[in-house]
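Reopening this one. Same input as before:
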Amino acid sequence: MAAKSLKSQVTMLMIVGLTLFIIVSLVLYLSKSTIKKQSQQGIKQTQETAIEIQPVKEFVAKCLDKLAKDAIVYWRPRKNLRDSFIMFYRFAFGDAESGVIRPKVFLVFLRYFTGLVLVTFYLLTSQSIFLLIIFLFLTSYLIWAAMKNFRYVKHPLAYLYLPILQFTSDLAVLIGTSLGLVKRLGNK
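Same output, byte for byte:
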């Protein structure tokens, strides 16, 4: 009887996980299509303007499109984790609120969703294979977090601080993007 209960719980968890994945994918798709519609409406409005102003408006629209796609954000490093979290949160919230969802944001959500599913499977089944996968997943995450920015720091303590900073920024992006999307969808 307990085996049937466990199987049904795992099945239900998989259904919930798949549903969440589909919902997140749908929200990301809809936000991209909204941006595309807004840019098409902007082009249509530009075409309806007077002929003498048309070249100037087209030039400005092209510059803005290029600027938005190739935007590079320069920011002053913060002095502590709290200030860093607030900065990352504000960037993510503003992007999501304006409908800009960067591809790496989807990867952050996917990374933590995968971790959550693995932890849930381990807690439900107590299978050591899930514990091993979690350990490998977490170890590779920590190594990746340290290695990707070590070239900028080049100090041995960076191997300790860079994963902490990565986790802080991931958490800020998860919360900021989620709340920004909620606000954007609530304003419609």
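So the earlier flakiness isn't reproducible anymore. For the record, The mean pLDDT is 79.
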